[in-house]
Amino acid sequence: KKYGVNELRKMFLDFMESKGHLVLKSFPLVPQGDKSILLINAGMTPLKPYFTGAEKPPRTRVSTCQKCIRTGDIENVGKTARHGTFFEMLGNFSFGDYFKREAIHWSWEFLTEVVGLDPNRLYPSVYLEDDEAFDIWNKEIGIPAERIFKFGKEDNFWEHGAGPCGPCSEIYYDRGEKYGCGKPGCTVGCDCDRYMEVWNNVFTQFENDGNGNYTTLKQKNIDTGMGLERLAVVVQDVDSIFDVDTICSLRNLVSKISGKEYGVHHEDDVSIRLITDHIRSATFMISDGIMPTNEGRGYVLRRLIRRAARHGRLLGIEGNFLATLSAEVISGSKDGYPELEEKKEFIFNVLTNEENQFGKTIDQGLRILADMEEAMNAAGEKTLSGENAFKLYDTYGFPLDLTKEILEEKGYEIDEEGFKAAMDEQREKARSSREVTNYMGADATVYDQIDTSVTTEFVGYDHLSFESPV
Ligand code: ATP
Ligand code: MG
Ligand code: MG
Ligand code: MG
């Protein structure tokens, strides 16, 4: 039977509830009291205080379906079958309660018995020194040794600086030869879409003191994460996360609005998938109170909206279209996230305002950029000056990466240092003019926090965030 996305979410949470877990609602995308990340990127991140023992969990077994944003995956979106900037992560967590044995057995039970995946297509991986996990897979579950992959620290040991850390065991699904890259040696761990990672089980059993010294934790934890959309891909046996039931109807709407049939031209398909993904992120971000601005999270949102708007132009869409798409996101996801329905008018307004604002300048900006390209061509240059990139940013509202993306498609680069310098110069000017108009005790440092330097941040963002393995 082919379960839908909304059914699968419920099946997972019901299953974990039957194993004694307390099911919690998804936490908001905006981290609460955690300055180390801009946006929640995994099920475990809002639960960190329970892992470290800083706070007492409501129960030692918790399960969630967590909305996640990973802008670090943005380059993959539309190109791989399995990456979105937005996705939902199903997870079960043990705070000093059960450990490896239960976690592995339950993940197997869920995948093979509850949703009925073919066990012969599933491949676990373990950290190469984790004999305990290997033996559970091999002797208890009965997976032949040659089907269990042993990987090193980069792949199968989860840690982030100091603190709780440990080996992990991932479960891959072989989607068949037609999804393979065809290169010799393509197998579990290959970066192509054939052996798709579905679930990651992290065994947080050590504490790293920050200098690479590991001690065994008194409290052993379990932290797992499975992409709901990826689960749906394998259960529904479809090509990509853009083909699962709820997302497919959104994708079809993009096709309908643009008049571009899906599956005909590769470039159109990439744009269709990208818009489909970005509108999901934007809808959920706005629903969690993020507004398009020029800094931090707000800039992440602005960039996603503007990138979607530009790809809409590429597909030939005229006028605003994002609110219409957002309505489809909401009707597909309100089952799991009823707050979307309550906030929909607000979400549509924010999207339309941002589209209007960018719409005023995008066509002109694109023309100016085309002129700049021509000038570069004539001069035999391959790099757009920082000044020009800044002009596009400042006057036409083009986020740096948008300009970069457009130019990269044609083999050009940007002088990013020059862009930063132009930005700094403008900031300096703004500062000195503020000093003059700084009346009524307004504190200049407040303005400094709304710093334009963060606008280059889509690149820098990855330094701020950590992509936890789960
Ligand atoms: P990959 O190697 O495929 O990029 P990952 O190792 O980065 O995945 P984890 O950090 O282990 O992923 O996250 C746990 C699970 O979340 C993954 O096994 C996958 O099912 C899902 N997941 C991770 N990133 C994405 C994404 N960008 N889009 C959709 N699902 C994702
Ligand atoms: Mg990844
Ligand atoms: Mg991985
Ligand atoms: Mg992983």
UniProtKB/TrEMBL annotation:
Domain Alanyl-transfer RNA synthetases family profile: 3-470
One GO MF term: ATP binding
Cofactor info, note text: Binds 1 zinc ion per subunit.
GO biological process terms, semicolon-separated: alanyl-tRNA aminoacylation
UniProt-annotated location(s): Cytoplasm
Catalytic activities: tRNA(Ala) + L-alanine + ATP = L-alanyl-tRNA(Ala) + AMP + diphosphate
Domain of life (superkingdom): Bacteria
E.C. code: 6.1.1.7
EC class: ligase
UniProt keyword annotation of DNA repair present: no
A Gene Ontology cellular-component term: cytosol
Obligatory cofactor(s): Zn(2+)
Alphabetically ordered keywords of this record: Aminoacyl-tRNA synthetase, ATP-binding, Cytoplasm, Ligase, Metal-binding, Nucleotide-binding, Protein biosynthesis, RNA-binding, tRNA-binding, Zinc
Role of this protein: Catalyzes the attachment of alanine to tRNA(Ala) in a two-step reaction: alanine is first activated by ATP to form Ala-AMP and then transferred to the acceptor end of tRNA(Ala). Also edits incorrectly charged Ser-tRNA(Ala) and Gly-tRNA(Ala) via its editing domain.
Recorded domain comment: Consists of three domains; the N-terminal catalytic domain, the editing domain and the C-terminal C-Ala domain. The editing domain removes incorrectly charged amino acids, while the C-Ala domain, along with tRNA(Ala), serves as a bridge to cooperatively bring together the editing and aminoacylation centers thus stimulating deacylation of misacylated tRNAs.
Family: Belongs to the class-II aminoacyl-tRNA synthetase family.
Protein name: Alanine--tRNA ligase
Originating organism: Blautia segnis
Organismal lineage: Bacteria, Bacillati, Bacillota, Clostridia, Lachnospirales
Covered range of the whole protein: 2 to 471 of 879
